[in-house]
C-alpha cells in the first residue's frame, strides 16, 4: 500500500497541473481574442437593428460605407432608440463632385461623424407624430425642422421622407437628400 501512495500523489498532481494548464490556455485565448461591439452579435431571429436594415438595403450602400468609415456601426447597433434619416445612394450622388470622396478620407472623419450624427435623432418618432414646424435636436447637437404639407413630410425644407422602416432599436426614414449641418 505504501508503494501506491507516492503514485497516487504524483497522479493527482499531474491531473491538477494539466487542469491548470488548460485553464491557463483558455484564459490566454480569451485575452488574445479581440472583443467586438454590439455590431458583432450574431442574431438571425430577432428584428434587425438600424445598421442591419441599412446593410440589407441596396439603396443605402453609400450610407453604410460612410457609417463604417466614421466608426459609428457599434453606436447605431446599440439599444437606442434611434430615428435615422437615411439618405439613399442617389441622395449622396447629388452632393458636389468630390465631396463624398473627401469626407470618406481618414483626415475628414470628424466632419463625416458630424454629418452622419446630424441624421440621427435619439428617440423614435414616426411620421404620423411629426408636425409642421417641429424642431428635432439631433445627435450632433444641431437641429432639423420638419415640414408637413399635403401629407408629404420633409426635413429642412429639402429632404422628402420616401418611406419608413421599423427596426429593433428605432426607425429609419428613407430620405432623398443628404442633410448638412
From TrEMBL:
Sequence ranges assigned to domain FAS1 in this UniProt record: 47-179
The keyword Signal belongs to this UniProt entry's keyword annotation: yes
Signal sequence range: 1-22
SMART domains: FAS1 (SM00554)
Pfam family, one: Fasciclin
InterPro entries in UniProt: Adhesion/Biosynth-related, FAS1_dom_sf, FAS1_domain
Keyword entries, A-Z: Signal
Transmembrane segments: none
SUPFAM superfamilies listed in its UniProt record: FAS1 domain (SSF82153)
Name of protein: Fasciclin domain-containing protein
Organism: Flavihumibacter fluminis
Amino acid at each position: 500500500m505504501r508503494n501506491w501512495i507516492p503514485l497516487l500523489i504524483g497522479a493527482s498532481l499531474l491531473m491538477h497541473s494539466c487542469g491548470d494548464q488548460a485553464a491557463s490556455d483558455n484564459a490566454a485565448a480569451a485575452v488574445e481574442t479581440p472583443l467586438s461591439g454590439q455590431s458583432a452579435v450574431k442574431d438571425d431571429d430577432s428584428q434587425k437593428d438600424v445598421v442591419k436594415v441599412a446593410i440589407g438595403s441596396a439603396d443605402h450602400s453609400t450610407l453604410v460605407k460612410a457609417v463604417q468609415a466614421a466608426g459609428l456601426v457599434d453606436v447605431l447597433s446599440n439599444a437606442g432608440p434611434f430615428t435615422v434619416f437615411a439618405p439613399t445612394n442617389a441622395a449622396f450622388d447629388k452632393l458636389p463632385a468630390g465631396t463624398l470622396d473627401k469626407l470618406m478620407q481618414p483626415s475628414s472623419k470628424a466632419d463625416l461623424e458630424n454629418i452622419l450624427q446630424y441624421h440621427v435623432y435619439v428617440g423614435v418618432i414616426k411620421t404620423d407624430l411629426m408636425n409642421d414646424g417641429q424642431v428635432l435636436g439631433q445627435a450632433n447637437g444641431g437641429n432639423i425642422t420638419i415640414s408637413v404639407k399635403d401629407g408629404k413630410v420633409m426635413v429642412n425644407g429639402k429632404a422628402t421622407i420616401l418611406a419608413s422602416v421599423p427596426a429593433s432599436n428605432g426607425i429609419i426614414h428613407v430620405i432623398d437628400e443628404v442633410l448638412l449641418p
